[in-house]
Amino acid sequence: MTFADHFSGVAEQYAAYRPHYPPAVAEVLAAEAPRRQLAWDAGCGNGQLSVALARHFERVIATDPARAQLDAATPDPRIEYRCEPAEQSSLAAGSADLTVAAQAAHWFDWPKYVAEVGRVARAGALVALVGYGCLTVEDGSAIGHYYKVTTAGYWPKGREHVDNRYRDLVWPWPEVAAPAMEITASWTRDELLGYLGTWSATQRLTAAKGPAPYRELCEAVAREWRDGERRLLRWPVVIKLARR
Questions:
Q1: Are residues 218 and 197 in contact, defined by beta-carbon separation less than 8 angstroms?
Q2: Cβ neighbours around 116 below 10 Å, total
Q3: Which residue from 34, 40, 46, 156 lies 20 to 30 Å from 200 (Cα-Cα)?
Q4: pLDDT for 144
């Protein structure tokens, strides 16, 4: 099964610069799961959420079709990483107490993924989508222009689901209420630019037009933001839950 691989080329940077979910996300998922024997993290990337879930579940099976992402993942004795697509996993039927896709479901073939979740999740299991929207930062006019103007047209299909907070990715099972959350981080400008460099739109823009647009962003941010200065960044977190 083929898949849209937007991040293998920047797997190490992805692991280094992507924001981390607050511990409360894994706590909420564990609290709502009927049991804590097995969690399936689909599209796990470098295992960010997988590691957080391993603090609450006996086993975590973390799957991603990109071997480069898994090679950069954090090892943990409770996590088994498997290189396979979310729509066609090797998990046993009715085995998972929690299924979750974190900042990944917008890249999936949604109907096929829902069918696979229905097969893998046991009756009463919690099924979850987790994601985060575009960041906000004080005095970040250059970043806003880069997102809304410079990279417009270079985001792969599926990014619209992030922008509309997963509104159109609807579970066929009863909804479970989820709390509002956000990710916060205190970053230097170099950390921020490292993160922006992992955007799929940045990769596509660079492939089409060369490094100049991203380099211009770096220069604009440097004019607004002193070297070594830390600023608070925020990302709104989206959590959609249902009961299988």
A1: no
A2: 21
A3: 40
A4: 86
What are the tokens at 164?
């509309």
Q: What is the mean pLDDT of residues 221-235?
A: 92
Q: Which amino acid is at 65?
A: P
When pLDDT is averaged across residues 148-173 and rounded to a whole number, the result is 92
Q: Which fold has domain 8-243?
A: Rossmann fold (3.40.50)
Task: Identify whether the C-beta of residue 44 lies closer than 8 Å to the C-beta of residue 62.
Answer: yes
Between β-strands 136-137 and 231-243, what pairing exists: parallel, antiparallel or unpaired? antiparallel
58 pLDDT higher than 80: yes
Are 41 and 62 spatial neighbours (Cβ–Cβ below 8 Å)? yes
- Name the CA dihedral angle for 95, 101, 107, 111, rounded to a multiple of 10 degrees: 40
CA distance 54 to 51: 5
CA triplet 11, 16, 18: central angle to 5 degrees?
A: 85
pLDDT of residue 26: 98
Domain ranges of the chain: 8-243
What mean pLDDT value characterizes the chain? 92
Whether residue 3 has pLDDT greater than 50: no
* pLDDT of 9 strictly over 60: no
Q: How many helices (H) and strands (E) does the chain have?
A: 10, 9
Q: How many Cβ atoms from other residues are within 10 Å of residue 20's Cβ?
A: 12
Cβ 83 vs Cβ 70: under 8 Å = yes
Residue 237's Cβ-count burial label (10 Å; 0-12, 13-18, 19+) is: buried
